[in-house]
User: Fold this.
Amino acid sequence: MSMPAICSAAMVWSAPSTDTYAFFFSYVSPLQLATSWAFMVIAMMLPALLDPLRHVRERSFWRVRPWAELLFAGSYLGVWMLAGIPLLGVAITLRLALSNSALPLVVCLMIAFVWQISPWKQVTLNQCHRRPSLAAFPPAAYGNVLAWGMNYGLWCISSCWGLMLLPLFAPSHHLPLMAIVALYIWTERLEPACAPRWQFRVPSRAIRLIARVAAGGGKVLALPTDRRGPDASSVRRRPSPTLPIE
Assistant:
């Protein structure tokens, strides 16, 4: 390979200049990026947030409940907003450096796949399944949900960072990828916690749920009777004891 070819290949991988960043931010302001990131996080993580919000609701008195839910969701979103700084920074830098290449998306797919089958991914999923005890009365109740929202957000970021990068590297297919990733994240949370190991995690519960809905013509079928206990009609009633008549 000639020296000019090597130099041109090195230029392809060079980091964007300051002028390139200035030109980019002249069209897209940081406020627009932050707003888009917030909507993206809300749209993609809302299905996975429903169960923790139900946990907060079930363990809060009705006077405390609205503020508890707001503090939990706000702290969770705040952690994701801070995580958007490095994630968006990586995505913007690679897209500016390799604007006409699909290489960033391919590399992101490979990294996300390795992370998905790793035992460390299962560690983060197990932490996302934790449901801590929450205080009933304020201000301890507010402090508990605020701390849990930040902690839950950190474990969600640790679990989903690779998947969240995928839509950022495919602007022409941004919305379809968002929907696919959001659905996959939701199916992950349906699976029970298990021992961390290298494995390909099949969303078996989601598959069974979809099959049950399809078999029921759009309605979720009831669980089999053997999982709920014996049917009332099959239980043999014992005769009531009779007292001797004196």
In short: Residues 65-97 form the longest helix (33 residues).
